[in-house]
Amino acid sequence: MKKTHYFIAIPIASEVKKQISQWRDGIVSHFPFRSWVHEEDYHITLAFLGYVPPAKLDAICKTMTQVAKRHAPFLLSLSEIHTFGNRTAPRILWQGVEKEEKLFALQRDVYTACIDIGFSLDKRPFTPHITIARKWQGNEEFRLDALKQKSRVTATFSVHEIVLYQTHLERTPKYEARALFPLF
C-alpha cells in the first residue's frame, strides 16, 4: 500500500489560477521545464506534513479548525516571478506574493500547531509562493531577466480558508482537498 502525503495550504482563487495558467501557456514553448503544474494544483503551502498515519488525521483537522478560527480573512496580491535552485538551471519556477504579515502570522500558527501534534517540518524560512514549473531542461542557461520581460500576472485574491490536501502522484491534478478550515 502506498503512503500518501499531506500538506496544509492556502488555495488560490479560481480566476487567479486561470490567469496564471494563461500566462504559463504563453511562455511554455520558450522555457523548457520538465513539468508544468496543473492549474488546479496551484496553492501556497503553509506546512508540508509528509506521510500522516490515519490516526493523526483527526488531530490535524481538530487543530486546524482551531487555528483557522484565530485568523480573519485577508487579501494577497501576486508579485514577481522567481526561482529556487541554481540560477541558470532552476529546480522550481514560482509566482510570488506581496509581503503580507497576516499570511506570515497564519503560517507561523499552522507550523507551530503541526509541530505540537508531533510532525517534523521543514526548518527553512517561509517563502510564500505558487509553484508553476519544475526542473529546467533547456540546452541554454535559464535567464530570469528574459522571463521578466514577458508580461506578468497582476491579481489580488481573498484568503478565506486553509485546506488539508492529499497528494496523488499518479493523478492529474495531483492534489485533493480533504478538509477545509474557514478563517473567521
Describe this structure in words.
The strands form 2 sheets. Strands 2-6-5-4-7 form a 5-stranded antiparallel beta sheet. A 4-stranded antiparallel beta sheet has the order 3-1-8-9. It is built from 4 helices and 9 strands; from the N terminus they run E-H-E-E-H-E-E-H-E-H-E-E-E. The termini are far apart. The longest helix is centred in the middle third of the chain and has 17 residues, at 101-117. It is globular and about 50 Å long. The chain is an alpha+beta fold. The chain has helices spanning 14-27, 54-69, 101-117, 144-148, and strands spanning 5-11, 33-36, 43-51, 74-86, 89-97, 129-136, 156-159, 161-167, 175-182.
- The SS-based structural class is alpha+beta
Largest sheet: 5 strands, antiparallel
* Fraction of residues in H or I helices: 25-40%
Question: How many β-strand runs?
Answer: 9
What is the gyration radius calculated from CA atoms? 17 Å
Helix-strand topology string: EHEEHEEHEHEEE
Enumerate how many helices there are, as a single number: 4
Question: What would you call the shape?
Answer: globular
Strand order of the largest sheet: 2-6-5-4-7
What percent strand?
A: 35-45%
Distance between the termini: 38 Å
Instruction: Average the pLDDT over all residues and give the rounded result.
Output: 96
Poorly predicted regions are none
What are its keywords?
single chain, four-stranded antiparallel β-sheet, five-stranded antiparallel β-sheet, 28% helix, 184 residues, globular, 38% strand, alpha+beta
